[in-house]
Design brief:
The chain is mainly α. It contains 14 helices and no strands.
Length: 257
């Protein structure tokens, strides 16, 4: 297909030419992104996934190149979010995402892999509707288990993004199960990033929103599941260790009631 020739050429220019938008029509770039994004949601997306990752050298990727991949992945997430009434579409999105995960896992350069992991439902792209909470969505238990598995693996690599995506995808709909990947991501973030405490402070509003909703609206559900109890307490204990006073209050109340 023609796109197999166009895409590598476009990516090379975006990654290597400063002020590339002076040479390439932004609308043409948008058309390429739209074509690829739509292809990822087709019945058979394997050819598109292959095209995205069968490149000679990812080491030449720039921040603009990564941004291109994030815009493509953001469309897949938007389709998943919107398909709450269509199980078939959600399963198709999941198959495509797992194929992307497999491709990323075979890239040699660690930095490249980590950057591309934003594609694992950890980005809403540069341009998107301001607040997805104004839209309706729902998640089945199976949907939430899939999201939990993906975010447990990669959420810590882009923890700020994870929090933002969780917030946009409706915290109430994702709770209480979302506590599990949140706990795993928070733990790994603390183990691997010296600035994790500052990251927590910078995103305290969303974090407080999650733990408060969990306690006020899902206390009984959490208490009925040993794994959720353990994860929620660990989340709160970790946040207390980072100096978050709201977490200390909720932890005390959770253990009392």
């Amino acid at each position: 297909m023609i796109m197999r020739k166009i895409f590598p050429y476009l990516l090379s220019i975006i990654s290597n030419v400063e002020d590339y938008d002076e040479f390439i029509d932004v609308y043409a770039v948008d058309e390429v992104i739209t074509f690829i994004s739509n292809g990822l949601c087709d019945k058979d997306s394997s050819a598109i996934v292959d095209m995205l990752f069968d490149l000679p050298d990812f080491g030449q990727m720039s921040s603009d190149g990564y941004e291109l991949y994030e815009e493509i992945a953001a469309h897949l997430l938007a389709v998943y979010f919107d398909a709450y009434k269509n199980i078939e579409i959600r399963r198709k999105c999941e198959v495509t995402l797992l194929a992307i995960e497999d491709k990323i896992s075979h890239i040699c350069e660690l930095e490249v892999r980590n950057n591309l992991c934003k594609m694992m439902f950890l980005t809403l792209g540069k341009i998107h509707m301001h607040d997805w909470n104004e839209l309706h969505t729902e998640y089945s238990y199976k949907d939430k288990m899939f999201l939990n598995e993906i975010w447990s693996k990669y959420g810590w690599l882009h923890f700020k993004n994870l929090l933002y995506v969780i917030n946009q995808m409706h915290i109430t709909e994702l709770l209480p199960e979302i506590i599990l990947p949140l706990n795993e991501s928070l733990r790994k973030c603390g183990e691997n990033y010296a600035d994790c405490k500052e990251m927590i402070k910078a995103n305290a509003v969303i974090i407080n929103k999650i733990i408060t909703k969990a306690f006020l609206d899902f206390n009984d559900d959490i208490k009925c599941d040993h794994e959720l109890v353990k994860a929620f307490e660990e989340v709160l204990e970790t946040l207390v260790g980072f100096g978050m006073e709201e977490a200390a209050v909720i932890l005390d109340e959770f253990r009392v009631h």
